[in-house]
Every structure is written in C-alpha cells, then in structure tokens.
Design brief:
Elements (H helix, E strand, L loop, with lengths): L2 H7 L3 H4 L6 H47 L6 H10 L1 H40 L1 H4 L3 H18 L9
C-alpha cells in the first residue's frame, strides 16, 4: 500500500475536527467528499479527452487535405487510392477512432461518478434530521454545511444541484 492510498483511507482533518457531529455523520461527509473528488477527476479527464479528440481529428483532416484531397481532387478514385496507399492514414484514423472511444468511455465514467455523488449528497440532505439528532447539533449543522460548501464545493443545503 503506497502513501497516497493510506492518505485516502484516513479522514480529511477539517471533517474529522467538526464539533457537534458524530462519527457516523463524519464518515458520511467523508464519503460524499470522496465521491465529489472522483467526479471532479473524471470530469477533468473527460474534458481533456474531448480536446485531444478535437485536436487529433483536425490534425488528421488537415493532413488528409494536404496529402490527398488537394493533390488528387480531380478524381474520387484517385483520392481513395492515395488514401489507401499511405499507411499513415490508417494509423491516424485508428488513433482518431480510439480517442473518440476513450472520450465516450470517460463520459460514461463521469456520468456514473456524478450520479453516485449526487445520490449520496441527496441522502445526506434527506437524512439530516437523523445525522443531527440533538438540539445543539441541529442548531449548528449550518456550520457543517458552510464548511463543506467552502472547502469542497458540496452543497448540502438543498437536494437539487
């Protein structure tokens, strides 16, 4: 087990240091923080994959225009023949299709992580009366909500985003 994994296992200190919050509630808050982190990570990777796919596709189309379309524009058969005879075209086409597939895979993972994050966040909002049962805890729960919003951009005030 490496250091990063061990750090992931222990709770974030701001959550651990919360007063008027029991251990089960702290664990629920830590879980929603981890889900948000996972969602943000996949969101970032998906955006990078979109840009990589666009750049690769534009580069490939530019390369095709320069090496095939502009030279053999007088005949479709000549363009097709020139396209097939250049092995770089197949390689670039495979990379473009692979990048598109990667982009779609990352979108699915991002959507799944987003769904998990929002389900857990909504559960905390729904069960807030269970998490903060005592009168003192209930009166101070807004401090927990503010901390989660400020530090992690997690809105626990309302069910909707």
């Amino acid at each position: 087990m490496n250091i990063r994994e061990m750090e992931g296992d222990k709770m974030d200190s701001p959550i651990q240091l919360l007063e008027n919050t029991d251990q089960a509630t702290k664990q629920a808050l830590e879980n929603v923080r981890k889900r948000k982190e996972k969602f943000d990570r996949f969101k970032h990777r998906h955006i990078l994959s979109i840009w990589a796919t666009i750049i690769l596709a534009v580069s490939f189309l530019t390369y095709l225009y320069i090496t095939v379309a502009s030279i053999y524009s007088y005949s479709f058969a000549a363009m097709f023949s020139a396209f097939v005879n250049d092995s770089n075209n197949l390689t670039l086409l495979v990379f473009c299709v692979g990048m598109y597939g990667t982009m779609n895979l990352l979108k699915e993972k991002k959507d799944k992580a987003e769904k998990e994050y929002h389900e857990l966040r909504r559960e905390i909002v729904d069960r807030s009366k269970d998490y903060w049962k005592k009168e003192e805890e209930w009166k101070n729960r807004h401090l927990v909500f503010e901390l989660m919003k400020k530090l992690y951009d997690i809105n626990l005030y309302h069910e909707n985003k």
